[in-house]
User: Fold this.
Amino acid sequence: MSKNVLTIRNLSVNYQTDQGTLQAMRNVNIDVPKGSIVGVVGESGCGKSTLISTIIRLLATNADIPNGEVDFEGRDILTLSEDEMRKLRGDRLSIVFQDPMSSLNPVLTIGKQMTDIQYRDKKTMAQKRQRSINMLESVGIPDPASRLNQYPHEFSGGMRQRIAIAMALQAEPSLLIADEPTTALDATLEVQIIHLLKQLQSTIGCSVLFISHHLGVIAELCDYVVVIYAGEVVEEGTVSDVFKRPQHPYTEKLLECDPANIAQKTRELPTIPGNVPDLVSLPSGCIFKDRCHTKIDRCDNERPQRIDAADKHYVSCHLRSPQ
Amino acid sequence: MLIYCIKRIGLGILIVMLAVTLLFFMIHLVPGDPARILLGPRATPELIASMSQQLGLDKPLPIQILMFFANLFRGDMGMDVITNRPVADIVFGQLPYTLSLILTAIIGAALIGIPLGCYSAINRNSLADRVTGILSVACITAPAFVVALYSLLIFAVYLKWFPAVGAGEKGDFGDQVAHLVLPAFAIGLSWVGYLSRLVRASMLEVMGENHIRTARAYGLPERLVVFRYALKLAVLPTVTVIGVGMGFLLSAAVFTEIVFARPGLGKLIFDSISTRNYPVVMGSVLVSTILFVISTTISDLINAWLDPRIRASL
Amino acid sequence: MLQAIKRICGDPLGLVGLFLVALMVLSAVLASVIAPYDPIALNIIDRLQGPSFKHLLGTDQLGRDLFSRVLFGGQVALKIALISISIALCIGVVLGMIAGFGPRWLDNIIMLLFDTIRSFPTVMFALATVALVGPSLSTVVVIIVITSIPTYGRVVRTQTLSIKSNEYIQAELAMGASTFRILSMHLLPNVVGPLFILASMDIPTVIALEAGLSFLGMGVKPPTPSWGSILNDGYNLIRNTPWPIIAGSIPLVLVTLGFTFLGESLRDLIDPKLRKSL
Assistant:
């Protein structure tokens, strides 16, 4: 247990909607070992944002958690009071959001926002500002002292994401959640931000939970990867295991569809046929069966169990079960 | 920013000039001799003739308009036909009463309405929010003169808590404040409702934005999130609304000043109509219009200055 | 339409609004049937009475039955509101379309005109007009028409501009469709909803303005009953009896509330997006 910063066990999240109960996440297990970077990959709507909101406990009001625990540094986050939770946020547990254009307050200066987060520290304003200046410098913002007095709209998208990273890492948290931090940026900036994250992670020594749908980024940055499909973890393991020897048919298909892996010139890009199942009325059996190219009879009725395919490489698929 | 200021002020001046022209035509296109109308029914033919000459009515219309503007620019709005005092003196003598009434009302309304809106937004869909919502609509729709009548009836006539008429003894500040309470309440009440609903709506919108989620994700105390991160954005629209609201407040002040027999622009216009003192009527309307245009211009400028996004794009 | 009524019934405030508005319209239309007395008949013996079975809301200083005066006052208020808002709507729609579809300079002139009209505080403008042409029912209508044209005109102009920039309209224009065809086929259906809501939310303002002017003695001429003139009588008698004030204010407050609740309910029903812009 102590090897992990974050241990998620058997976590389910439901949303009450007009159509009925939407089971956004079902029995999810994720481990984030100390000092490592874990990637979470999946299509849009697979429950990535629900996962993040659950960890930072900012779920929508119509959500409830029927079962599961989220253990962070030895404490179950789900049982903490609102006050205790707020003490963790921005201090031990921090986050970088997807859209740098809208995630900073438009009417307050960067300096104001960065010093506000340090409200817990009993330091003078000058010390707090100095801390923010150092932080901005380390994320590569030129002339940080004067830029502290500027408003978010005076920065470019890439700069804003650097600022967001600086804000998130200012308190040197033990876990940083990065919610698709590079999706809104163009490719060259993406590489820069990834390098920056990796470099800061090793200096600070924190763990990172990196959410993305971009396989290339995950392969480059992460140590471990968790593949989520329609609210369930279908496969997890080290990046090299999962990417070189995928065990779940969904992971295989995902890797096939990644443009980086298309060797031959082709007129049609590969796709996974079919749609994500309706999470209000879940089908019985395997969640992926309708889109699976290797479906067997068992998949129709029996839900696949999580099995150990190799050392620290887990998969939920009947094809890999010993029977 | 500077260019925007100049443009906005230029527009304000243009509108005032158009409004003045409109008023000029209203006086001069009304059937009958303007001099006769200005002097009223008791005027002798000799008086009308000298008045016509004095007003320059024998000159062509464009010249007349120019003269009207030239006089106005010098602060000359003509003479009161009854007391023969300059209209400007009379109007500006009454202006402080109306201004103090309006300012008290709007400041009071903001002090009550904005926190009420915040509270409603934070406790959305609670019983308190629903009750506030219905009461706000009731406050907004209640016409100012009805509120004035009831507050006069209840608080001045029956309970005798506050004085009923006038603006208080000159120099006696406490007395003046006591005379201000009921009139300010009468015109401010609808603004309490209006501001609380406006702040509630814009607060709810702001609270749903991404940067508020960021602030919460960084563990900022809810008090800081609401009052520094959300409220500053949410009050921006109220600044504009208060500027436009000056027009409504000036209208409401007319009724209130009459009901409470309180001196001010509205009372002045009303009294001047009954004595057929047209130069004073026109002067008061003119001054209140200019006041309104100035306040909308200022509120637009303040709004642009408060919002760094707009400030930068100008 | 039936659907709309059904959905209003689901909204308690909208239902209250609908009830109040229906009550007002009915009592105004049937005023001459319901009213127990002639609203302008004097009865000096029964003057200044409180409510009783004989006079439901009491009598005024001339012994006129206040309940009857309130009923006929509602008739006057409704008539003025409907006439002036319809006229303002028609002129506003035409001017708004011209501003939106016409050349740029015309648009600028019309908008400047709208801004100028709006720069007068309404009641001040009304008083200045009354001072010059004298108080009467038609003066009130003219004042309301002039001051409410800009509101409707602006909404229509904004809609026209946004429709004009649509690609399918550009395509139709390129194929030689007439401006009239585009305005009547594409624009009108789009503005009817917002204008209807705007008008229904404008009715309480107009009724209050009429009552206010009549209260000042600058609206309808006595002895024509109006809620405003009942209130004026009440103001003069404030130290003797509260009943005229109560009789004149209750219908006024209920009707403005009713129209506002109904208008908001309709707005949420027809177009939730308007929430912000109205």
